[in-house]
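Input record (Table S2, row 900):
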Amino acid sequence: MADLSINMCGIKSPNPFWLASGPPANCGEQVMRAFDIGWGGAVWKTLGTPVVNVSSRLAAVKYSGNAIMGLNNIELITDRPLETNFKEIYEVKKRYPNHAVVVSLMVETKDEWKEIVNRSIDAGADGLELNFGCPHGMCERGMGSSVGQEPKVLTELTSWVMDFSSVPVLVKLTPNVGDILVPGEAAVQGGADGLSLINTIKSIIGIDLDTLSLKPSVGKNSTNGGYCGPAVKPIALHMVAALARDKNINIPISGIGGISTWQDAAEFLALGSTSVQVCTAVMHNGYRIVEDMIDGLSNYLDDMGMKSVNNLIGKAVPGFIDWGDLDLNYKVIAKIDADTCIGCQLCYIACLDGAHQCIHTNQGPCSAYHGKSDHGMNPRVDIKQPILHSHDSNAITSIPFVDEDECIGCNLCHLVCPVPGCLTMKEIPNAAGKESWNDRIAKKTLL
Amino acid sequence: MTPELQQQFQLSKTRLESDFPESKPLFSESEALIEANRCLFCYDAPCTKACPADIDISSFIKKIKTGNIRGAATTIFSSNMMGISTSQVCPVEELCAGACVFLEYNQSPINIGRLQRYAVEKALQMEKSSGRKLFPSHKNRSQKVALIGAGPASLACASYLALEGIHPIIFEKNNLPGGLNLTGIAPYKFKSEAALSEINWLLDHGIELKTGVEIGRDIHIKSLIEEYDAVFIGSGLGRDKFLNIPGKSGTNVWGATALIKKIKNEVDFNLSRSFNSAVIIGGGNTAIDIARELAMLNIAEVNILYRRTEDVMRGYAHEISGARKHGVRLIENITPSEIMLENGKVSGLRAEHSVTGESINYNCDMVIFAIGQEKQASHFSEYLKYDDSGCILVDDKTCQTDHPKIYAGGDSINGGKEVVNAAADGRKAAFAMLKSWDIQPNLDSKKKGSYHG
Ligand SMILES: Cc1cc2nc3c(=O)[nH]c(=O)nc-3n(C[C@H](O)[C@H](O)[C@H](O)COP(=O)(O)OP(=O)(O)OC[C@H]3O[C@@H](n4cnc5c(N)ncnc54)[C@H](O)[C@@H]3O)c2cc1C
Ligand SMILES: Cc1cc2nc3c(=O)[nH]c(=O)nc-3n(C[C@H](O)[C@H](O)[C@H](O)COP(=O)(O)O)c2cc1C
Ligand code: SF4
Ligand code: SF4
Ligand code: SF4
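Output record (iron/sulfur cluster complex):
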C-alpha cells in the first residue's frame, strides 16, 4: 500500500485529506470523530471576534436529481466563545498528536492578530490559516475577501502574522479576483509558508419564484453568499494549477473546492496540491466519505506504481500550457461502436445542432434542406456508409455513423453519449509533425 | 492447489445444468454505473442491517460509483468471503434489497446482488491481469485448524483463517468441494463451474483441501481434536427426507436434493425425453427450485403439492412467482397418501384434500420429495449438544460449541438457511478462534475495506 502521509511546509498529516474550515470542523467533538473515521487533518472553523449567525443560511442547486451540485452559504465565522474553541483545540491535539490541526483566523487590528495567533499556538495549533477569502458578511466589515482582494493589505497582514507565529502559516485565498496570481504572489511576498484555495465564490443561488425572495431566505430577504460544492471544482482546479506553475510561487498549496471523491482529490494533487480540504461533500454525506477517499487513492497509487502520494503531487502541472503552444496538427475524430450503440441519437442531434453536422443515420434524407449546403442533415452523396452489422447490412437503423472527413474532433458527441466506450475519439496520425500557433508566428505562416 | 486437484475439478460439459440460461447476468459497466448512481448512500443503511453477513452495502456501491472496484470488492469480501456466490445466490428480495429505502418510495430497490457480482467479478479480473492480489498473504503462524465439510461455512471460515496466516485443512467426504453450493443451487442462478472457480480462488489464499475423506468414518473426530488447535464443523445437512407412504421406494421417486445434484453434476444424465408430468411434494424453496428446473427442462406438467396454503409456505414469494412464469403450478391443501406404481415405476399419486378430506388422483411419471433434509448428527454426538430439532448448539456470537475447541456453522446449526448465513457463521468462528489465540486480525471488521497488507 502506498504511503499517504504528507508534510506540508512543516505541517505533518497521516494522509492529505483535511476538513476545510466550516461547519464540519466547528467543534472538538466533531473533529475527533472525523479523525477516528480517517481524516488526516482539520482546519478549524474560522476564529475571530465571535459573531451572530443568521437562520436560514444554506441553499443549493439541484441538478438531475443530484441534491447538492452547488451550495451557497451566508454563514460567518465561529459563533462560539474563543475560550471554548481554544480549550477544545487543546483537547484534540492532546488526544491526536499525529493529526494536523490548523486554526483558521480572521481579525482586524494588529493587536488582535497578535493575541489570537499566540492563543492558537498556545492551544497547540500545528499551523494557522488566514481567512482572507470569505466573500459575504465579513468583507462588509473590512475582513475576509476584502483583504484577499487588496494585494498590499494582504501582504501587510501576512507579514504581521509571520512575525508573531512560530508555526507554519497558510494564506487562504478568495477566488473573487481577476487574476489569482496577484493575491498568490502578495501572500508569498508577505512570507506565507503555504496557500489554501479556493474559498467560496460570491453568488446568488436563486430566488423562490412564489415569493420572489432570494435564497436562502432570512425572513423576506437574503444576501449574496459564497458558492462551493462539486460545481466549483473546475474553477478551483484552474486557480490551483495557475499558482502551481507560476515561477514566483514556490510554496505548497492546499487545494479546496468541490472535492467529494478520491478522484477529485487526485486531480487536485496532480495539479500541484500537497493537501486537499473538503467542506460541502462532508456536509452532504458525512465524515464517512473519507473511507473511499483513502482506499481509492491508495489503490490508484498502487495501480500507477507510485510508492507515495508525494509522487503524484504536481504530476499534471507540466501539461498545463498556453493555447499558443498547443499542437495545431494534432487531430482526433469520433468513432461509433455499432455493437454497443443503443441508438439514442444524442450524438446525432448534438453534432447536428451544436457542432459540425457530421453525424448521420441511414434513416433517410430530410427533403427540406436537401442539397442546400455541404454541411447539413444529409450525408454527402459520396460518403461511404459503413456496414453497421454484418447481419443487417442494408437495414434502416437508428445507429448513426460519422463522416470522418468532416468531423472536426470537438468531443461533443463523445461527451453526450450515455454508453461508456461506445462513442470514442480516435487519434489520427499526422505526418506533418508538431506545429503550434506560436511556431507559426515565429515562421510568419499564420493561416 | 495441486495439479491433481485441478484435474479433478474439471466438470464435463455434457451435464443438464449447462443448458440453463443465466437469470441475472453480469452487469456491463454502464448498467452498473447507472444502478450504482441511483443508490442514496444511506447512513446506517437498512440494506446492511438486513444482510446476514453485515456487508457495508452503501459503501461498496459508493466505491463502484467512484471507480474504486478493488475497494468495493475488499469491502464485500472483508465481511463475506463467499461474495462471489452470494452475489448470485442470495435471495436479495428477502434480505438486503427487500429492506432498501426505495421500497418506501414505491420504486424498485437497488439491484444489490448484481452490483455485488459486478464488483467482485471485475476485481477478480483485475487481480488476474495485474497480478496484484486483493488480499496479500501474511506470515505463517503455528496454529492449524481442521474443518469438516467443504461447503460455504467451512470455506468462509478457512479463508479468514488463511488470511491471517493460520493453516486450515478442510476434509470433504465427496470428491468435489463446495457442498450444496456445487450440488444444490438452481443452475439458472449459479453453475457448478462458477462454484469451483470461486473455490479455486479461495483455496489459493492458503487453504489445504482433502477430498474423499469422511470424518467419523475415515478419521475419528477425536484425533482431529487432539491434533489441531481447533475444529470447525461445517457438515451441513444429510439426505432428503421422505414421507412414509406406500410406493415411496418406487422407480422415479426422488429426493429433491439428490435429483438436483444429478441435474447439476452428473455427466450425461438426462430427463427431458422420458418424462411428461412431475409432482413435487413440499412447500419450501427446494420444492420451488426443482419444480422450476424441471419446467425449464421441458417437462410439460409440473405441480407442487403443498399441504397448507401459499401464504404460510416457507418458499419465498419471488421464487414461486418466478417458477410460475415457467408454467409451474402450486396446488394447496394437499396431503399425499400413496404413490401408485406400475411395474415398479411411478404412474400416479393419490392424495387427500386437507380441508375437504376429498381423495384426489394425480397422473404423473415422477414424484419428488422436497420436505427437507435429515440432520447429520451421529458422527460428532459424543462431543456436542443439540437442540430438539437436531441442530448443533453454539454460542450466537462465536459459533463455539460446548466443547471449547470445536466450532460449528451453516446448515448444521441453523437447520438449513442460506449460503450467506453459512458464510457469516464461518467468519464469526474464524474471528473467535483468532481472538482465543490473542491474534489481532489484519482484516479490521470495523474499517471494512481497508485491508492493506
Ligand atoms: C436445493 C437447494 C437450493 C438452495 N438454493 C439456495 C440459494 O439459491 N441461495 C442460498 O443462499 N442458499 C441456497 N440453499 C442453501 C445453501 O445451499 C446452504 O444453506 C449452504 O450450502 C449451507 O452451507 P454449509 O457449508 O453449512 O453446508 P453444505 O453446503 O451442505 O456443505 C456441507 C459439506 O460437508 C460435507 N460433509 C458432511 N459430513 C461430512 C463428514 N463427516 N466428513 C467430511 N465431509 C462432510 C458434505 O459433503 C458437504 O460438502 C439451497 C439449498 C438447497 C438444498
Ligand atoms: C457553511 C459554510 C461555512 C464556511 N465557513 C468558512 C469559514 O468559517 N472559514 C473559511 O475559511 N471557509 C469557510 N467556508 C469555505 C470552505 O472552507 C471551503 O473553502 C469552500 O466551501 C469550498 O470547498 P467545498 O467545495 O469542499 O465546500 C465555509 C463554507 C460553507 C459551505
Ligand atoms: S440540518 Fe436541519 S435539523 Fe440540523 S440544524 Fe440544520 S436545519 Fe436544523
Ligand atoms: S449517443 Fe452513443 S449510444 Fe446514442 S446513438 Fe450516439 S453513439 Fe449510439
Ligand atoms: S437502502 Fe437502498 S438506497 Fe439506501 S444504501 Fe441501501 S441500497 Fe442504497
